[in-house]
User: Fold this.
Amino acid sequence: MSILTPESVLAALKSIIDPAKNNDVVSLGMIQGLVVKDGHVSFALEVASNEGPAKEPLRHACEKAVLALPGARSVAAVLTAHRGPASPPKAATRQDRQGPLGVKSVIAVASGKGGVGKSTVAVNLAVALQRLGHATGLLDADIYGPSIPRMLGLSGKPTSRDGKILQPMQAWGIKAISIGSLISEDQPMIWRGPMVMTALTQLIYDVEWAPLDILVVDMPPGTGDAQLTLAQRVPLAGAIIVSTPQDIALIDARKGLAMFQRTHVPVLGIIENMSTYFCPNCGHESHIFGHGGARETAAKLGCDFLGEIPLHISIRETSDGGTPITARDPSSPQALAFMALADRVAEKLKAGTTRPGPRIIME
Ligand code: ADP
Assistant:
């Protein structure tokens, strides 16, 4: 049985010539992030940010050449915008970051670990931004637990008019797509990891998002290689870190910050989720997970604190019910906390004056 190796894949790709440059795609350094695993191949084809659609035939030729190799079971090649020759990579310019998407700003909602309410914040932030008058989309890139369809009450799969470009789904005034609807849940984790970059890039570039003011990306939790790759590949205008007040989550949030700093993504700030607990019966206020930890950490790390979201059963119930609190009960204190957050985020994007990433010293 033939074993597919990165070397044999690269050898096949050397036969693919970019007619515009009269040289092969490997020699031109266009092949990035090649992953070969059990006959499954993924890689990115780096092109200038203004020539995406024109390079589609080249991308297709690359896929075809690799698929023809003995032992090749699947091939996913995506076009990504060229980051320029600088090494180490420099922050892309604002223009590069916006690219040809028709989306003014792409922002990432990230967390150091799972279960802190990252997806809940991403959903409600997106709906709140829309309510403030910004055309908003939501991309669920949380490959390890795509929960956006459930939180938005979406079912079924996105459709495509031409077999190439996906139409985003619609819910509560926003456009939305979940990576969960493209990668089946029974695919093994080991393959899902390397797939993250490829699939996410496709969900950014091969979806009819335009015209949008803001695209919110719900990132996978954690700070591993997959997340780092994402941060490098996706044209991010900024990142938001969600944390609970607990120390352990805050330590993870610090790692999240460090990751974005390494990839030159401006950090818009930290959000404290599950901050104050309000008893739905008596209104009594308590601090189950502590309080103020994210604010203190933000101050210590020199990055902005964007606000607190209370721990409230209505937030969980509305999420589980498919109608986010910002849509279900927009005048509730919980929804207003998200509206205030959205307002701050929009202001920062408008001003374009995001502070540079803070200096992080890892213990
Ligand atoms: P993550 O995306 O970080 O894994 P989720 O957004 O899926 O986390 O949230 C985990 C659980 O916590 C969900 O059941 C969600 O409804 C609940 N949750 C998140 N934030 C809050 C909050 N502020 N108040 C009450 N429940 C919350």
